């Protein structure tokens, strides 16, 4: 996260360096070129005065030698031209070669022959390649007899400009490096409590209510946030513990009087007349007491299993090895057929209470509630989403309507068609909660096609994460 902070700070620093460095760089370039231009202007002014005297007297030998010496010393071709543009004095070949590569010097020479001092030519940017052309008229006003023209290569000047710019860029990077050196540890110090708080929130979302954030590190604002977070988690953990304790204690305390009540009711059986109405009332009372006992047992088991929120790796083959034969016996007793299609080697995270208990509940629902002929158990590994193993229990019975599937995962909900079937309405809800706590999902879908072609049966699909390594619990 501190990298994100640097992503904001670094561009700001770059903009600051650019805002300060660009005008300074432009000033350096202008000063270098201006110095070069002033030097050439002084040179052509001196040569123009010498050429005026030499041309008027006809003594051009000394000027010719000086122009050649100037070119030899500085590498700058300088020539005296007449009004037609013909070179009168100077290194003719060097001048003509340099003039051919400067197409923009024509207006400058024309202006000089007209008696004016033209502006310098060329693009002075360091990445440009044009030369500096400076011309000076020889003579005055209408008595101009020629012009002095110099063609200066600016490669050395541009090299000095680039060197200065590189030095300025290096100096400009120093504040940026200093800013990064300071911002990195500061951002790490500021954002470390945020990362720890994020990690704590992730652990809490997985069911660990004992985790707390570090309230001693970071800025004062983040320390106050961590303290508030810990206070909130203390309240949540206490509320959850009280709720679980209440359900567990209430279930436990109600079991003894309920058992006594059942014994008292069953003790009345010898005193009932076989043909009287008391027998029917007695049967209803015993059935209701049994249902209440099952409900209390389910509540107590739910509270006990919800207090544990860890998942552990398990081999699906090992789970099925202890269950399949019993499932076959149960389905055979009910006149049904069990089909198992599970590939070997599947390893997944087992929810609290055991994966076998969840599959037992799903098989029991298929036997009791669906009126099915065939029950099928399949498993597949799905690589998408980080790796998931799906276990499906399908049947070809009646099941429940598609509109009732969302309600079927709620506690104590029962389909109107199953009111006379033994059950508490807690089985699927507890299974869905335990599967979700292990990082998986329990969903209800269409099952196998019904034999009469009237639709599809019922299917419960358990999707659990793949266990990547054998051994340690997740």
Automatic annotation (TrEMBL):
- Which reaction is the catalytic activity of this chain? ATP + protein L-histidine = ADP + protein N-phospho-L-histidine
Give, as one word, the top-level EC class. transferase
Localization in the cell: Cell membrane
Histidine kinase domain: residues covered: 249-468
Under Gene3D superfamilies, the record lists: 1.10.287.130, 6.10.340.10, Histidine kinase-like ATPase, C-terminal domain (3.30.565.10)
* Record keywords, A-Z: Kinase, Membrane, Phosphoprotein, Transferase, Transmembrane, Transmembrane helix, Two-component regulatory system
- Enzyme nomenclature, EC number: 2.7.13.3
The protein's GO terms of the molecular function aspect are: kinase activity
- Tell me where the signal peptide lies: none
For this entry, the protein name equals histidine kinase
